[in-house]
From TrEMBL:
<feature type="transmembrane region" description="Helical">
    <location>
        <begin position="47"/>
        <end position="67"/>
    </location>
</feature>
<dbReference type="InterPro" id="IPR052159">
    <property type="entry name" value="Competence_DNA_uptake"/>
</dbReference>
<feature type="domain" description="ComEC/Rec2-related protein">
    <location>
        <begin position="229"/>
        <end position="498"/>
    </location>
</feature>
<keyword id="KW-1133">Transmembrane helix</keyword>
<feature type="domain" description="DUF4131">
    <location>
        <begin position="21"/>
        <end position="182"/>
    </location>
</feature>
<keyword id="KW-0812">Transmembrane</keyword>
<feature type="transmembrane region" description="Helical">
    <location>
        <begin position="412"/>
        <end position="437"/>
    </location>
</feature>
<feature type="transmembrane region" description="Helical">
    <location>
        <begin position="327"/>
        <end position="347"/>
    </location>
</feature>
<dbReference type="Pfam" id="PF03772">
    <property type="entry name" value="Competence"/>
</dbReference>
<feature type="transmembrane region" description="Helical">
    <location>
        <begin position="253"/>
        <end position="273"/>
    </location>
</feature>
<keyword id="KW-1003">Cell membrane</keyword>
<dbReference type="InterPro" id="IPR004477">
    <property type="entry name" value="ComEC_N"/>
</dbReference>
<dbReference type="InterPro" id="IPR025405">
    <property type="entry name" value="DUF4131"/>
</dbReference>
<dbReference type="GO" id="GO:0005886">
    <property type="term" value="C:plasma membrane"/>
</dbReference>
<feature type="transmembrane region" description="Helical">
    <location>
        <begin position="293"/>
        <end position="315"/>
    </location>
</feature>
<dbReference type="Pfam" id="PF13567">
    <property type="entry name" value="DUF4131"/>
</dbReference>
<feature type="transmembrane region" description="Helical">
    <location>
        <begin position="476"/>
        <end position="497"/>
    </location>
</feature>
Length: 649
C-alpha cells in the first residue's frame, strides 16, 4: 500500500517538486529513523516505527516512479530529422499505413550525411512508428529489422476534455515516448533481423501460431476470439465484437487473465501428472508448470493480468516447498502486487492491473460469504453455486472501477460466465491438442474442428445474451470521490457480514447516504453542453455522451450559432450577392482556397484551423486572418477545441 501510494502521489502531485536526489534523501532519512525505532518496546514507539516504515516504502515508490519516467521521457526535435532504430514488435496494418513499436537508437539533423558516424545523438527510447509502404511494396519490415527513417516525432496529442481519454499518458505508461509518421521514400531497411531478443522471439512465435490458426480455416470473429483467448493477440478484434462481449459481461475472456492461467495450469498439471510417480516428482511438476506458464506469459506479451496470475501461482508453488500449511491468499496477492510494482511502477496505472487485482481481492473477500449462502445439503448443485459465487465476488470487487472507467454494467454477467468457463476450457484445450497433433492428420483436424465449433458457440451465445432486453446498464459514471466511497461501502459491508456489529451497520448507512447525496447533486447541478471541433468533424458533448453532428452541405445551425465545416473545394471561386453570416469556419484538410475567397461567400466571425492542415498552409491561413482582422484559433496542442453551447439541467 505504501509503495503504491508513493507511485500514485508522485504521478499526480510530487514529480515536479520532488527531484530524484531529494527523494533519495527522504528515503535515507526514513531508513535511519526506522532503524533507530526498531527494537523499542514502548507502544508509542511502535506506532512511530510503523509510520516511518510506511514513509520508507512511500519514498521508494516515488524514486521508482521518477526513474521509470526518466527512462521514457525525451525532448524530441521539433523538425523532421533522421532516426535509426530497431523494430521491436510485429508490424500491423493500419489502413494505408503500417504500425510497429520501434526502439530509436539515435538521430541526426536531416541535412547531415547518413554515413557520418560521429554526429549521431543517442536516444534509446521507444516510439510508435507509422510508415507508408514503398511504391513497389517489396520491402516489408519484420520484427528485429534495423531501419533508418525521416520523421517528426512528438508526444501524442492528449485531448482529455474531448475524448475523456489521455492517449499521450497511456502510451507514456506503456513505455512509448512518442509517435511519428514516415512517408514512402523516407524510410529504408538498413539490415534484416539478425539475433533477436527473447521478447521478439516470443512475438514471432505468437504470430506463427496465429498463422497456423488461419491455415486451419479459422477466420473472421472466430479467428479473432481464438487468437485473443489463447495467445493474447487482440489485433483482429473488431469494435462490434468487443461491444458484444462487453454488453454480455464476458469481456474478460478476451483479455488473458487469471481464468486462462488457471485453466492452463490445470491442463499442464494433468499432462505432467506421470512425473509424480518418481522421487521429487511433485516438486518437479510444480517447477515445470511455473516455467511453462512464464513462457506463455512472454508469448502473450506480458500483460499485467497475466503477470499477476503467473506471479501468484509462482509464489504459491514456491511457498509449498517451505511451508507445510496453506499459503494465505491475501499475502500472495499483496506480494505479487509489490513485486510487480518494484519491477515496473507504471503497472499501477494499467486498467488491467487494477481490475485483475480487484477481481482477486473480491474473490478472496466475498467468495466464502456467497458460497456459504447455500445450505450444506445441496451437494448436486454445489459446483454450480460455487461458480456463480466466484463470478459475483469478482464482479463486486471490480464494479466501482468498471463504473468509474466505462460507466456500464452488464446485467446478465452470471449467465454469460456460466457459458464462458466451459467453452474457454474447450478452446484452450483443443487448441493445445491441435498444435501438438497437427502432423497427425485425423487427430489434428478433429481438434481444429473442436476449436472452431467452441469459438462459434462462444460468439453465438454472447451475441444472444447481448440481444436480451436490458442486457447492459449504461451512462452510470462515478467520480473519483464516489469510487472511494464505493470501496469503503464494500469494506463495511464485509465487516458487517462477518461480525454483525451495530456500529459497522451505522457507518455503512452513513457512507451510503453520502454516496447517494453526491449522486443526486451530480444530476441536479447544471451541465455545460459543449460543441467540439476535432478530427475534422463537429461533435456535441453532454456529460460523457459524445455525438457526431452531420449536415449534407457542411453548414450547421447549432442553437443560435452557424458553423461551416470546410474540407473540400465546394466554396472555391464562389461568390454571393448577400454573404451568409458564419460564426465559425472550421477549415480542415481537403479545403481548397484561402480566407479571402471564402469571405466572398460568408461573413466570417471566427476561423478554426484543424491539426490536419500542413504547417505551411496553416501558417498562411493564419497570416491571412490576421490581415483581414478575423479571430483565428489553431487546434494544435490538444487536438480539439470546444465552446459552451448552453447550460442544461
Amino acid at each position: 500500500m505504501a509503495l503504491a501510494t508513493g507511485i500514485f502521489l508522485f504521478d499526480r502531485f510530487l514529480a515536479d517538486c520532488c527531484s530524484l536526489e531529494l527523494s533519495l534523501l527522504g528515503l535515507v532519512l526514513s531508513v535511519v529513523a526506522a532503524a533507530a525505532c526498531h527494537g523499542m518496546s514502548r507502544p508509542a514507539v511502535r506506532y512511530v516505527f510503523g509510520a516511518v516504515t510506511f514513509l520508507c516504502f512511500f519514498w521508494l515508490g516515488g524514486i521508482l516512479y521518477l526513474m521509470e519516467d526518466r527512462q521514457v521521457s525525451y525532448e524530441w526535435p521539433s523538425d523532421e530529422v533522421a532516426y535509426q532504430g530497431v523494430v521491436e514488435t510485429v508490424p500491423q496494418r493500419k489502413g494505408k499505413t503500417w504500425q510497429a513499436q520501434v526502439k530509436v537508437m539515435s538521430w541526426k539533423p536531416a541535412g547531415d550525411s547518413l554515413q557520418a558516424t560521429g554526429q549521431w545523438k543517442k536516444v534509446d527510447r521507444s516510439i510508435l512508428l507509422y510508415w507508408m509502404p514503398d511504391t513497389t511494396g517489396q520491402t516489408i519490415l519484420q520484427c528485429g529489422d534495423k531501419i533508418c527513417f525521416y520523421a517528426s516525432v512528438s508526444r501524442p496529442v492528449s485531448d482529455v476534455d474531448f475524448s475523456g481519454f489521455d492517449y499521450g499518458a497511456y502510451l507514456h505508461r506503456q513505455g512509448i515516448s512518442g509517435t511519428g509518421l514516415a512517408f514512402a521514400g523516407r524510410w529504408m531497411r538498413l539490415e534484416q533481423a539478425g539475433s533477436r531478443g527473447f521478447r521478439q522471439q516470443a512475438l514471432l512465435v505468437r504470430e506463427h501460431v496465429v498463422r497456423r490458426y488461419e491455415e486451419w480455416g479459422l477466420d473472421g470473429d472466430v479467428l479473432a476470439v481464438v487468437s485473443a483467448l489463447t495467445v493474447g493477440d487482440k489485433s483482429d478484434l473488431t469494435p462490434e465484437l468487443k461491444a458484444t462481449y462487453s454488453a454480455s459481461g464476458a469481456s474478460h475472456v478476451l483479455a488473458l487473465s487469471g481464468l486462462h492461467i488457471g485453466i492452463l495450469a490445470g491442463i499442464l498439471t494433468l499432462l505432467l501428472y506421470p512425473l509424480r510417480l518418481f522421487p521429487l516428482g511433485r516438486s518437479l511438476t510444480g517447477v515445470l508448470t511455473v516455467l511453462l506458464l512464464w513462457a506463455f506469459a512472454f508469448l502473450s506479451g506480458l500483460s499485467a493480468s497475466v503477470v499477476r496470475a503467473v506471479t501468484m501461482f509462482s509464489l504459491y508453488v514456491g511457498a509449498s516447498f517451505f511451508l507445510e500449511g496453506r499459503f494465505f491468499g491475501f499475502l500472495s496477492l499483496s506480494l505479487a502486487a509489490f513485486l510487480m510494482l518494484l519491477y515496473r511502477p507504471f503497472y499501477l496505472f494499467d486498467v488491467s492491473f487494477q481490475l485483475s487485482f480487484l477481481a482477486v481481492w473480491g474473490i478472496l473477500l466475498f467468495y466464502p460469504v456467497f458460497s456459504g449462502w447455500l445450505p450444506a445439503g445441496y451437494r448436486r448443485i454445489r459446483w454450480l453455486w460455487n461458480t456463480l459465487s466466484v463470478s459475483m465476488a469478482a464482479q463486486l470487487g471490480t464494479l466501482p472501477f468498471v463504473l468509474f472507467y466505462f460507466g456500464a454494467f452488464p446485467t446478465y454477467f452470471l449467465l454469460a460466465n456460466l457459458l464462458v468457463t466451459p467453452l474457454a476450457v474447450c478452446i484452450l484445450g483443443s487448441s493445445l491438442a491441435a498444435l501438438a497433433f497437427e502432423r497427425i492428420p485425423w487427430m489434428g483436424e478433429r481438434a481444429a474442428d473442436l476449436v472452431r465449433l467452441s469459438a462459434e458457440a462462444l460468439n453465438g451465445s454472447m451475441f444472444q445474451i447481448q440481444q436480451l432486453s436490458g442486457s447492459q446498464v449504461t451512462s452510470v459514471y462515478i467520480s473519483g470521490f464516489q469510487l472511494v466511497l464505493c470501496y469503503l461501502l464494500l469494506a463495511l459491508l464485509y465487516a458487517y457480514w462477518t461480525g454483525k456489529r451495530k456500529h459497522v451497520l451505522i457507518s455503512f448507512l452513513i457512507v451510503l447516504n453520502v454516496l447517494l447525496g453526491t449522486r443526486i447533486l451530480d444530476w441536479i447541478k447544471p451541465v455545460d453542453e459543449r460543441l467540439y471541433f476535432a478530427r475534422s468533424e463537429l461533435y456535441s458533448r453532454r456529460r460523457q455522451s459524445l455525438t457526431r453532428l452531420a449536415e449534407a452541405d457542411g453548414v450547421y445551425r447549432i442553437d443560435s450559432l452557424s458553423v461551416g465545416l470546410m474540407k473540400s473545394s465546394r466554396w472555391k471561386g464562389k461568390q454571393a450577392a448577400s454573404r451568409l453570416p458564419l460564426d465559425y469556419a472550421y477549415i480542415c484538410r481537403g479545403f481548397k482556397g484561402n480566407i479571402t475567397s471564402l469571405s466572398r461567400v460568408f461573413e466570417l466571425k471566427h476561423v478554426v484551423l484543424d491539426l490536419s492542415l500542413s504547417d505551411a498552409y496553416r501558417l498562411s491561413l493564419k497570416e491571412e486572418c490576421k490581415k483581414l482582422g478575423i479571430p483565428c484559433v489553431e487546434i494544435s496542442s490538444k487536438g480539439s477545441w470546444g465552446i459552451v453551447r448552453q447550460n442544461l439541467k
